[in-house]
Amino acid sequence: MAAVETKKKRYALVGTGGRSIFFYTAIARTYSKTSTLVAFCDTNQTRMNYANSKLQSLGHDAVPTYLASSFDAMIKETQPDEVIVTTIDRTHNIYIVRALELGCNVVSEKPMTIDAPRCVQILDAVERTGRSVRVTFNYRYAPHNTKVFELLREGAIGKVTSVHFEWMLNTSHGADYFRRWHRDKRNSGGLLVHKSTHHFDLVNFWLQTRPLTVYAQGDLKFYGRENAELRGQTSFYTRAHGSAAAQADPFALHLEQSAQLKAMYLDAEHEDAYHRDQSVFGDGISIEDTMSVLVRYRSGATLTYSLTAYAPWEGFRVSFNGTGGRLEMEVVEASYVNSGGEQALEGSLERRTITLRRLFEKPVEVPVEEGGGAHGGGDEVLLEDLFGTPVSDGFRRAASHVDGAASILTGIAANRSMATGEVVRVDDILKLPA
């Protein structure tokens, strides 16, 4: 008998900026037998044209392109099964909700959205349509993070009572959030939503619980013009391109020196006036770069968390205290700039260690399988789960819209706490379904 050809799942992608490359490259290069792209949608035609050129270089046919105002027409004309949403964070809800209403499932880049009203729109749309939303938390799939889940689930340190989690963004990757649209809190919700959604999701995932109360403090301590002036800086510029002052600034991003950044942003800015290379020491930055958060969970455990966006190295340290001992992990990640043609470097590891310290026993270094590719090996496993053979395991790594909401609610509550100086009950912001 002839083999029955499996019907390819059809994907449309909205938002052809830097993160989109991760998804459409995987479909074209690795998952062409199971998946196919049928359309691109964006506010910028130049950027869509570049995405099509990348597709064709990988052997995939060019796909129709639609400006954002024609999103409904794209769904009607190309009939995707799923829509991949990689737009700026504040617009995720618009495309997620509309895709669900038009009969598609959704794959959303993190964070799922940036505030409670937008989150409610998504939750209501899922319930109303019966469709699904997957949030792509690739860190869950990294072998070292999965190993921590496994150890905690097995009771290696007894019941977890507290967690200390310190994340460092360096002066390459961390600085990059202050050059682009993320620097405006209205777009990203700030780093406690945009970036820390990964970290808060990991704690929810590791402990299999949700946040109860949140207290936070944070400020802009390093980036921004005022901080630079206080340190004695006198030379300023608005953006790097065309600026003589930027030539001597180690924080400057020179778009013309990267073929990919030039094609995606410098050559496209005549359409939308978006400047990808703004000065990290300029005006108009409304997000924090130094943050501390204290969380109590429904399980009774507490979290002390810090995020620094100007550290000399990239990575994190996390420690779990339990009734039977302590589990420690340190991960050092490689430095990179988003969309800078270094996709394989994103979150790739220089070093990682997991140490188990049971009470009254000698410490043991826990072996972890090597994972190839970006984000400590998590990207490849996530992509296989999305576009290949779904990962069948007991680790509960596939993240739903409820997981996406639970992760951002810690950051949303932290933002409210920073604004009010008060402890915030998460249920007072949004009560999630059980």
Automatic annotation (TrEMBL):
Alphabetical list of SUPFAM superfamilies matching this protein: Glyceraldehyde-3-phosphate dehydrogenase-like, C-terminal domain, NAD(P)-binding Rossmann-fold domains
Gfo/Idh/MocA-like oxidoreductase N-terminal domain residues: 10-137
Start and end residues of each Gfo/Idh/MocA-like oxidoreductase C-terminal domain: 150-425
Molecular function via GO: nucleotide binding
Designated name of the protein: Gfo/Idh/MocA-like oxidoreductase N-terminal domain-containing protein
Species in which this protein is naturally found: Stachybotrys chlorohalonatus (strain IBT 40285)
